[in-house]
Specification:
6 strands, three-stranded antiparallel β-sheet, alpha+beta, 113 residues
């Protein structure tokens, strides 16, 4: 279980595999100078609400991974997350879709963002 830390005030635990995919999408958006919302459901111990933060390249972000190995990335999941990040509702975690079969049409070595 990793952690996403935003501006030293907001900390949320996110499973390492999901966090690795979010890392790619968030990094790409901010590198392009595209601020956006990132939202998630809070743990039931916090009241089962929702938190939303405005991500901007001027504010510090920390992605803390607890596993020592980098998970394999699923281009289809990165595409799905990028789609939400580009919407008016902003980035939110969606279920991981099946990865495209190797060599299948539309399968690229790097995800489209």
């Amino acid at each position: 279980m990793g952690k996403f830390i935003y501006s030293d005030t907001v900390k949320v635990e996110i499973e390492d595999r999901a966090l690795a995919h979010l890392h790619v999408v968030i990094g790409t958006k901010l590198r392009r100078g595209e601020p956006f919302y990132f939202s998630w459901r809070d743990d039931s111990s916090l009241g089962d609400g929702r938190t939303s933060v405005w991500l901007h390249q001027a504010l510090p972000l920390v992605f803390k991974f607890y596993g020592s190995r980098r998970p394999a990335l699923n281009p289809a999941w990165i595409d799905a997350l990028a789609y939400t990040a580009n919407s008016s509702g902003g980035l939110h975690l969606v279920p991981e879709p099946p990865a495209p079969a190797s060599g299948a049409p539309g399968n690229t070595s790097s995800p489209r963002l």
